[in-house]
Design brief:
Helix content: under 10%
Strand content: 35-45%
Low-confidence stretches: 1-28
Order of helices and strands: HEEEEEEEEEHEEEEEEEEEEEEE
Largest sheet: 6 strands, antiparallel
Shape: elongated
Number of helices: 2
């Protein structure tokens, strides 16, 4: 009888070992892969003053085999990236073009909150938040693909404004070797650190930082005058902001009613009478135009900050004009 019991226990142990071996083989045949799309920011102006956002997708595919259908627990973690000067810091992350950097980060949702920075890689400071999800075998199928959206924000800070863009656009980038850990589980959930299988997440992030300028023009308003027996003068201001180390030139056209940049005219709002006037970059200086026909332009080199320029207006002495309000529209263009 004792021999029979020992034989039965041996047979049961052998059967258990066989079942475990089969289960282990099934688990090894069940795999997950990840295909991240590159995260590419739209064109970034270093002088825009506004953060730039973008998104990307992580496509996760898991495959089941055999009769068992355990759910798969997945944990996605990400380090600092190749653009960072310090590999243990992700607040902020940085994109790099040579020695130049811009600050950005990758988030798990569109709140762009510090608590939602995608991280979770051991050794980072702060550790950030890992992305965790569970995927279940579809009814009647052996494969399931699920997309995870990640959110990027590039900050419009002093670092961006100080970028020396120069005469050409620059492309800033960072490469990642993040990790997707996963495990098919018959019961219960494990923490990220306990998941046994892993694959790399080869993510690339890029941002083109463009050469850029913008201008703001005020109204050149002359004071009231009776007979134009002597010149009437006034000033206004023009603002220009260009990327750091970007050379620029500002030109003016002839206006709506003038026959040329040195022969601008304002028109009476009530009749066809006109008044001749001049715009210059200095007091009673040469006509401000496009640099042709004796006219001059206004130029400089940007430093990322707003510069204020003075616009000088002069109505020379003349006669024959009827009373009224005289106006003209002149277009200013910045070239860089």
């Amino acid at each position: 009888m004792m021999a029979q019991r020992r034989l039965l226990r041996c047979l049961l142990c052998a059967l258990c070992a066989l079942v475990l071996a089969l289960c282990a083989g099934a688990a090894r045949a069940q795999t997950c892969t990840i295909a991240p799309a590159p995260m590419v920011f739209p064109a970034v102006s270093s002088i825009s003053g506004a953060a730039v956002n973008t998104t990307s997708e992580l496509s996760i595919t898991c495959n089941w085999s055999g009769v068992l259908s355990p759910p798969v627990e997945i944990c996605l973690s990400l380090g600092a990236g190749s653009g960072n000067g310090a590999s243990t810091s992700i607040a902020p992350r940085q994109l790099r073009d040579g020695s130049l950097v811009v600050n950005y980060n990758i988030y798990t949702d569109a709140t762009y909150a510090a608590a939602k920075i995608w991280g979770g890689m051991g050794g980072t400071t702060p550790a950030g938040t890992a992305i965790q999800l569970t995927m279940n075998r579809p009814a009647g199928g052996n494969s399931l693909t699920q997309s995870v959206t990640i959110y990027g924000r590039l900050e419009a800070d002093a670092t961006l404004a100080g970028i020396v863009v120069g005469g050409t656009d620059r492309v800033f980038s960072s490469n990642f070797g993040g990790t997707m850990k996963y495990q098919f589980l018959l019961s219960g959930l494990l923490g990220c650190a306990l998941l046994s299988q892993s694959v790399a997440i080869p993510l690339t992030v890029q941002a083109p930082v463009i050469n850029d300028c913008n201008i703001g023009v005020g109204t050149l308003a002359f004071p009231n005058a009776g007979l134009l027996t002597s010149p009437v003068r006034t000033t206004s201001s023009l603002t220009v902001r260009c990327s750091n180390n970007t050379a620029y030139s500002i030109r003016l056209n002839a206006g709506t009613y003038g026959s040329g940049m040195s022969a601008r005219r304002m028109k009476n709002s009530s009749n066809t009478d006109t008044v001749g006037y001049e715009i210059s970059t200095t007091l009673d200086g040469a006509s401000w135009g496009d640099g042709t026909g004796g006219t001059v332009t206004m130029g400089g080199t940007g430093n990322g900050n707003t510069a204020t320029l003075t616009v000088y207006g002069r109505v020379p002495s003349q006669s024959g004009q009827s009373p009224g309000d005289y106006k003209d529209t002149v277009t200013a263009t910045v070239s860089f």
